[in-house]
Amino acid sequence: MKKKYNKHPLDFIFHPKNIAVVGVSSNENDGGHFKALLNSGFDKKHTIYPVNPKMTKINNFTCYPSILECPTDVDYVISRLPAPLVPELVKQCIEKNVKTLHLFTAGFNETGDKNREKLGEEVLNMTKKAGIRVIGPNCMGLYVPGEQISFTEEAPPEESGDVFVASQSGVLAAEFIFRLASRGIRFSKVVSFGNGADLSVSDFLEYAANDNETKYVLSYIEGINNGKAFLKSLKKCASVKPTIIIKGGQTEEGARAASSHTGSLAGSAGVFESLCKQFGVILVDSIEEAQDIIIAMKTSLANIKNNNVISISSGGGNSVLSSDAISRSGLVLPMINKAVQEELRSFIPMAGTSIYNPIDFGVGANQVNLLKKLFRTLSKNKKVNCFFYSYGLMPWMDNKNTKANTLSSVGKFNIRNIFGKEQFKNESFDLLLSTFKSLQKTLKLPIVIVHRSRIQGSLDEVNHLACLALENGVPFFDSSERASKAITKIIKWQKAR
Amino acid sequence: MKKKYNKHPLDFIFHPKNIAVVGVSSNENDGGHFKALLNSGFDKKHTIYPVNPKMTKINNFTCYPSILECPTDVDYVISRLPAPLVPELVKQCIEKNVKTLHLFTAGFNETGDKNREKLGEEVLNMTKKAGIRVIGPNCMGLYVPGEQISFTEEAPPEESGDVFVASQSGVLAAEFIFRLASRGIRFSKVVSFGNGADLSVSDFLEYAANDNETKYVLSYIEGINNGKAFLKSLKKCASVKPTIIIKGGQTEEGARAASSHTGSLAGSAGVFESLCKQFGVILVDSIEEAQDIIIAMKTSLANIKNNNVISISSGGGNSVLSSDAISRSGLVLPMINKAVQEELRSFIPMAGTSIYNPIDFGVGANQVNLLKKLFRTLSKNKKVNCFFYSYGLMPWMDNKNTKANTLSSVGKFNIRNIFGKEQFKNESFDLLLSTFKSLQKTLKLPIVIVHRSRIQGSLDEVNHLACLALENGVPFFDSSERASKAITKIIKWQKAR
């Protein structure tokens, strides 16, 4: 077991045997890292040392006056102290052979204050000399489900996954976890590293590139401290794994915000963009876009090479606006060839339908044979690289559970869903997925489910459908716009490789 | 009372005394216009005549074999017959002095079939000669809450409002109603007019311009039949009321879809855009954007003239990405002047905050005095035309109702909300709104609430907050992107007037 983690010089950071939380709050309701580690069960596997000179006990744990009193050496220290107290803590860390110091503590170079900048330099000089690696300052630290380490007291998934996240923002790190998890994605390691004064994005990208657990790499970056190391690690990472970057501070205003947030110099947006293009990095603007790219990568869209979409929906106005959106993104809705048109007209009535792409024809999940006939016929078109299939309740259907003349209709849902663990019963969607799964296999073409966004009711049921789709390798997106945007980027990425 | 409706030659269309539904379904579960009219209570005010030769009774109503057997003349006929039977129906309409024929019936010129096109022409020649006005074909018809007319059997709002909608798509007409209603907007009249063979968008825009009930005009258009009449009515309408247009078929692919949908020739996107600019029409791409523009128009943003935004949020990474989004939209985050910075620093601590715009400082709804101090101080900045205030639960807070270090936190919600009729209890949000309402008045600056989008839980509570905000004249948007986009368009529109 141990060997698995013994391959990279930075492995120790993600696999501490004990963690001391220094400056643990005396107020039980305060939350923070101690509570987060308790909730994730770190103490069941390893040891937590709460540290606060004002208490002797907390939640049945001995509370130590300082780390010096901890009964063993300490692997990993989380500092929740005010910045001016950190140099003293570092001295103690040296005595206790601490390997990693995570500075949740903020108030160093990001303040723009000269004295605080000096304080930060002092701390860094001390840790460097002692060989202690620093995560932060000004960050949330680690979420490593395999080691039951978490920085958020809310309940992130217990299971490990294959996505590595390195984020300069703690709030965004948490958003990555919860947004992507709600759509069925799981994580190998997530690190919020804030100002990145010692361990920086370069270190984490380099680590992720080598990490066996990791298949996809996602990073939120505000600024780069060491350009040369960054270029090297970014290039390496993107050459071995799909690497998705959100670059904060691409505008002047955003750059100012980044400077105040993590003391980062954002650099030129143009230079960053061309670097990403050159290295095969996928640059995105938002968490939603990152989520969509990963969903595409993990389903049948990973290998899409060209941009011809046949779109199937019901309801003319939506077809029109959706076609406009698809086309604006750079994808193409090719004409349906005459022979295929004729075949379609043999089973699609004339009034209220269209067969020229977009296909405007209401065929529901329960009409399995008709669905198969439709997709098989359309797959004969000269130009087609993927299908869009519009799915969704009219949002106003919820209140009365009335079935209407919609393309498909979702069944009743019974149980509240948290990260897809429990079941919403929806036989028609299950049927749709099994049909699409087999069609994707036989036709060798991705079938993208485009869900019409909801305005009422519960989002949990939509998340559940999305999780099921992911399990079946069927891409599921919240709109034509988002699907098209993700696919366009995947195609560009494929072509650049 | 009657005089109110007696001002325009087309008033009769929206105020029929009786409606015959021809081709009413024998299956009670089928829904359709008869059920829609029953649900909206048209029969309590006026008379419904169901017509179907195969039945004598339906829902305790006498069902007539044809309109000829109806006991009185008929004002308004809804045809649910197949297209080939329509000419015979028109003959009967002439006998019964019908004023308006609404052809729900599809299958005319939009099919691209020559015989069907001829059939459509035949029908139109007959109605023209007889002076019968036609809505459609291929459309859902009317929703007029004041007359208890509805085309959807689901429950749209019973109350009238001030937004007029003319839509070539029935599905989108329904989406307009339910999406906007869920955010507190109500309607004077909504008409889905499909192919617009007789009554077209020109007639409806001209009508809306004159309608006392209507303050805002919204239209989804795929194509224009009579260019000259359209230009005249569009110009007139936009000169007297804010006029928002969604033009479907702006791309080649969308135009093809439009042609199949309503037989429309979409025309040149560039020409349409410059027309809109010239006439002061607000051109948008989606229902969401239309919704945002109307929310802006109905709140403190209606008169915003310049683009300097001071953005207040909590959580650095979000501040950075939000600033990037605001800046990309064309709005500006001006620097905070030195004197204002100094005043801010007198009550905002240094660590973990920023005062340079974006303001990164967590101040919650319950800290009324601190909030007021913050906004008053910031209003002294040389450049400021509006504020953004980021509001929202972390999405993952829902499951456990744990309060975390978020900017604000929403209370527990008790009752399911349909269009804001019932109360979700949320004292902290009420407090925030009353603070912002008074600040908007004293500072004469809009305060925009930017809600962080949810990924879990119920959307109904968000809709409820948005409705409350609208009632208080406080703009509420789902993201910085959407807020910025709407504001940018309002400013351009203001400048062009």
Short description:
The structure is a homodimer of 497-residue chains. Chain A has 17 helices and 19 strands.
Write the layout of secondary structure elements.
The structure is a homodimer of 497-residue chains.
Chain A: H1 11-14, E1 18-22, H2 33-40, H3 42-45, E2 47-51, E3 57-58, E4 61-62, E5 76-79, H4 86-95, E6 100-103, H5 114-130, E7 133-135, E8 141-143, E9 160-167, H6 170-182, E10 187-192, H7 201-210, E11 216-221, H8 227-240, E12 243-247, H9 252-262, H10 269-279, E13 282-284, H11 287-298, E14 309-313, H12 316-328, H13 338-345, E15 354-355, E16 359-360, H14 368-378, E17 386-391, H15 427-443, E18 447-451, H16 459-471, E19 476-477, H17 480-496
Parallel strand pairs in A: 1-2, 1-5, 5-6, 6-7, 9-10, 9-11, 11-12, 12-13, 14-16, 14-17, 17-18, 18-19
Antiparallel strand pairs in A: 3-4, 8-10, 15-16
Helix pairs in contact in A: 4-5, 7-8, 11-17, 12-17, 14-15
Structural key phrases:
homodimer; 497 residues; alpha/beta; Rossmann fold; 3 domains; six-stranded mixed β-sheet; 19 strands; elongated
